[in-house]
Amino acid sequence: MQDLRDAVIATLIEQQQAGADLTVMVADSTSTSKIGPFEQAYPERVVNVGIAEQNMVGMAAGIALSGRTVFTANAAPFLFARSNEQMKNDICYSATNVKMLGLNAGFGYGPLGATHHCMNDIAIARTLGNLAVYAPADGRQAAEIVRHVIANPGPAYIRMDSDKLPLLHGDDYRLRPGQPEVLHEGTGSVVFCLGTLAHEAMKVLAMGDDPTVVSLPSLWPLDELAVVALMREHQCVITIEEHVLSGGLATIISELLLKHQLRQTFVPLGVPAYEFTHSSSRAALRQQYAIDAAGLHQQLKK
């Protein structure tokens, strides 16, 4: 079991030790980001701007222009709701070398309700332009994404979870940017998963279901022909995401179905657009929107 944040921070330390020139910026989010070990090792490389997300993003762009690789680490709902203009202009339009960690995305803040749920980050990120977008499913994938974005200058967004989760990948795992990753090869249906919902999809195997389970750690860039090839091999295409159905994974996959004139049955599982979520545990909210293993199992039985 591993928290994605622990994997990310360990990788930042590893990369700094290897010669990367990093700065990590937080917005009164030292505990949320779990930045402590990196800050202890490199206190001069951590900047806490306080509850001032817009300042954080603008300052990150400025520091990046000095030659450093800058990571921002704060709550995803506030990154997108408060800092959208700075993300668009200072990072994406200006192509600065800033990597944004969106913490506790989706229902990560559970009982705190709609003000703290981040259900539209992928939808917004896909429209900003010049922004690589990632959603790791486990700690090893998260670590590989961090290594990749450090090695490749330019803006990036990484959607982060806060649960401790089992590892889906082995020690030899290497990220292939843009490539869909088949976690289980089954028959009949293919399930495309956003981030850590891959774990829910894998649970249905123990329920007697046998879908092909696909993780999409890289939402942009994305090898659409590889995704289309997987869809052609199955009768039913399902997406599962802790995100609104408009603009997220369901939209990405449905656009490809339309573009390539595929006739597979399409079932999007996620949060309906045009409604606010409510306060509850993550497990209860996933159950409500049928984006847990039980919900997927019921869909596969149809």
How would you describe this structure to a colleague?
The chain is α/β, with parallel strands linked by helices. The chain folds into two domains: 2-165, 3-Layer(aba) Sandwich (Rossmann fold); 181-301, Rossmann fold. Helices cover 39% and strands 21% of the residues. It has helices at residues 4-17, 30-33, 36-41, 53-65, 76-82, 84-93, 121-128, 139-151, 198-203, 224-232, 249-259, 282-288, 293-301, and strands spanning 2-3, 22-26, 46-48, 69-75, 98-103, 132-134, 156-159, 164-165, 181-184, 189-193, 212-215, 218-220, 236-244, 265-271. A seven-stranded mixed beta sheet has the order 3-2-4-5-7-6-12, sandwiched between helices. Strands 9-11-10-13-14 form a five-stranded mixed beta sheet, with helices on both faces. Strand 6 (132-134), helix 8 and strand 7 (156-159) form a beta-alpha-beta unit. The longest helix is centred in the N-terminal third of the chain and has 14 residues, at 4-17. The radius of gyration is 18 Å and the shape is globular. The chain starts with a strand and ends with a helix.
